[in-house]
Structures are given as structure tokens and as C-alpha cells.
């Protein structure tokens, strides 16, 4: 496993761990996962965190939202939130 694969897996795990600690239906920002994985230099992980969220959407684990509404992850522009699927 390469460092990139490890970081991708860590971001996916961070998303799921953070959401598990929230109330049902609550959301997180991709930056929350980036900060959990790399507290220093987390901004560099913003796009990888968004990609991790997209992978979790593809496997049916989470939904990406904007303005509280689910969106197609292929059309993301601007800030997003991530919510665990019921």
C-alpha cells in the first residue's frame, strides 16, 4: 500500500468516525476529516477529503449535501457537507 492509498483510507475512516460521533442526520465538513488526518497542513488534504467523500457516496455509505440538499457528487462546486446514510 502506498502512502497515497494510506492517506485516502485514513480520510475515509476519519469521515466515518466523525459522523459516527454525531447525531443521526448531522453533517461534517471535509475539512473536519482533513484536520483529523493531518492537523498541520490539513488544507492540502481538502481535495483528497472531498474525493474520499465521493468514494463513500459511490459505495452508498454517505450523502454529499449543499444547502442541506443531497447533490450529485460529480457536479460539486463550492462548500459541501457530508452526511451518513441511514
From TrEMBL:
Record's protein name: DUF3253 domain-containing protein
Protein species of origin: Glaciihabitans arcticus
Amino acid at each position: 500500500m502506498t502512502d497515497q492509498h494510506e492517506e485516502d483510507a485514513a480520510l475515509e475512516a476519519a469521515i466515518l468516525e466523525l459522523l459516527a460521533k454525531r447525531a443521526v442526520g448531522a453533517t461534517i465538513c471535509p475539512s473536519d476529516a482533513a484536520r483529523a488526518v493531518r492537523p498541520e497542513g490539513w488544507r492540502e488534504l481538502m481535495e483528497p477529503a472531498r474525493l474520499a467523500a465521493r468514494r463513500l457516496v459511490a459505495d452508498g455509505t454517505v450523502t454529499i449535501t449543499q444547502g442541506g440538499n443531497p447533490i450529485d457528487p460529480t457536479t460539486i462546486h463550492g462548500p459541501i457537507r457530508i452526511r451518513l446514510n441511514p
